[in-house]
Specification:
Shape: rod-shaped
Number of strands: 0
Distance between the termini: 179 Å
Radius of gyration: 57 Å
Order of helices and strands: HHH
Number of helices: 3
Strand content: under 5%
Largest sheet: none
Amino acid sequence: MVKKLKAMAESKSEGKQLAAAVRDSAQQIWLAGLGAFSKAQEEGGKVFEALVKEGLGIQRRTRAMTEEKIGEVTGKMSKAAGDITKQATHSWDKLEQVFEDRVSRALKRLGVPTSKDIQALMHRVETLNDNVQALSGATPVKTRKAPAARKAAAKAPARKAPRRKAAA
């Protein structure tokens, strides 16, 4: 039994040593973990700052690229709008010309003189008036009515013919 007790005593001291070794090892692991955590916090701040700087750079490049693309699209849209405006103006001018031609033909069919016809007629009347004056021996007087006088004469009401009484 002595041997057993001796073995137990030896094993107790070995157990204590083993427990102490395990405790020391656990303590070292704990301290290593705390050290790693502290290092990570220190380095983490630096890494975080580096990531923020990199993010800013990416954001600037993206913004510049976006503004460039927006400029291109704006240019294309402006050109397209200009082309459409040009086409619309051209179409409007064509439509206006067609309308003027049709109105002119309709007025011709109705026998309404054009402004050119009226100007030519006025010139002929003036020439005839001058010729009549020359033939009658009076000196030809070139007097033209002012446009306002012509308008006033045109607006003057026409005289009505007297009414005839119905036979009773």
